[in-house]
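User:
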Amino acid sequence: MSEQHQHHDHSHDHGHGWRKYIELICSLTCGAALAIGFGLSFVKDIPAVVPLSLYILAYIAGGFFTVKEAIENIREGTFDIDSLMIVAAAGAAVLGDWAEGALLLFLFSLGHALEHYAMNKAQNAISALAKLSPKTAWLKKDNNLAEVKIETLQVNDIVVVKPDNTIPADGIIIKGGSAVNQAAVTGESMPVDKGVDSMVYAGTLNGSGALEVKVTKPAKDSTLSKLIQLVNEAQSQQSPTQRFTDKLQKFYVPAVIIFVFLLCFAFLVINEPFSASFYRAMGVLVAASPCALAIATPSAVLSGVARAARAGILIKGGRPLEDLGTLKAIAFDKTGTLTEGKPKLTDIIPANGITKEELLKMVVAVESLSDHPLAKAIVADAQLKDVTPAENLESITGKGIKAQWQGHNVIIGNKALVSAAPDILQLLDEKSKAGHTAMLVLKDGQYAGMITVMDTPRAEARAAIDALKAAGISKMIMLSGDNQLVADAIAKETGLTDAWGNLLPEQKVEAINKLKASERKVAMVGDGVNDAPAMANSTVGIAMGAAGSDVALETADIALMGDQLTRLPFAIALSQQANKIIKQNLVISLGMVGVLIPLTLLGIASMGPAVIGHEGSTLVVVLNALRLLVVREK
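Assistant: Predicted structure:
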């Protein structure tokens, strides 16, 4: 069954109700007619025409779809292996071996029907994504609500999302707040609290609060539509094994045809009737058909991609699915991937008889006047209510800022503020070595203490790195634009093997190429925009939190839709399992062909056992691949 065959195979198997089972019904009818006809052929006094007409019925029922496909193939100019099945069945009929021809068609059509069913199951796991998106939305215009189709929504429209309803479009909340279940898009198991200014995605489920959402993308560009489109494209992106089996079939199929044709003339060499030579040739034809080989890899890739999509991991096809399982080295971007991506208040160290609370109040009062990102982070983390704000904020060039607060002069800034005190400078040095940014505070010219901020590692980073080590990843490197001290501090805290700091985006690409030279394969994990060049140069580019970034979705081979590093070990485990199953499938399919050809050639097995062995191996391969749909997360 060639790749060609794979693609138009689905032309008749997406029916509704009974129609999607029609292939199976025809196949079972063929089996029933064969069984009754075979039984009646042993009964005396029944005219021979009765079992014959039942065999003919079996031929019609079992051969209908196979003939239909053979004709489609020949029209497209490809002489498919499945067309040879028809030749074999017709050959059996010519020889008067109706029962064996009917058995061939029965098992072949049954194999096909079950294979389509299995493929549909994997397809359905994917197309379930498409059903998540609601068909209509409540549009708010001039304080009136109207139900409209989601295709008609424009950017900047306001939609109202009622409690427990599905969010119809990607957008930003402008009113209300709620816990949103994003499992469908990001794979996060816990609902996420969202408020004003939070991003929401089409296909996610609103909790108990009503929301007003300003649409940021038309329906066709929503994250969910992108996902579905990418998953569908993923099925056509071939894996290395797939390319190998396709190449093999290109040579193999013509070789089989020539060999079988020559076998028909064996009667010229050995003393036997033409019918015996023809019968043996048909048996070899069945035995040598590479149906199981053709389906071995695509069925596993499809199942693997479908299972990953359910867990919020988008794998774009067979190549990244196979490569991911063979990796030994992974490079990580720091900011936003291993760390939260925003500075957090880490230490408050008062001095000279000032309490911790007083120091914090003083700092928040002054910093709340500044619009510097670090100032905003300090004010947000301190969570102090009713602090009397400071006044007369001025900046002191190269040193920091000063302001008036409750009659005192307060200065906050860097170490240029205090020249002499060695103990303070030593503490400052310790803090910066640990990756913190420290700020000194002076009250009326006297040292009052220091506060430190830092982009802290994600809570789950350590656990994810440990799980990756357990999965066999031996080298984990952080690539960061930050200084080496900060990089080392984060690497130590998260358990990475190496940290490379002070890198510009183009140096990250060089770093990836250097790693590829030493490790052969390397994955790059980043959170989008500035990591795109490095991700594109790595063996497998993995994007974090891709639900929010179009660039990440486009460049990455694998996208973790939720912002969760813990998804990565599962993706690797799934890929390793997929590789195992692909190998098993190749062994089963090639092994069966290797056993059956000599057996039929030597006349040890006739056409019947060849049919059973050949079709049986195809079924085993498909069912083996379907195991990927039920891989559990540890």
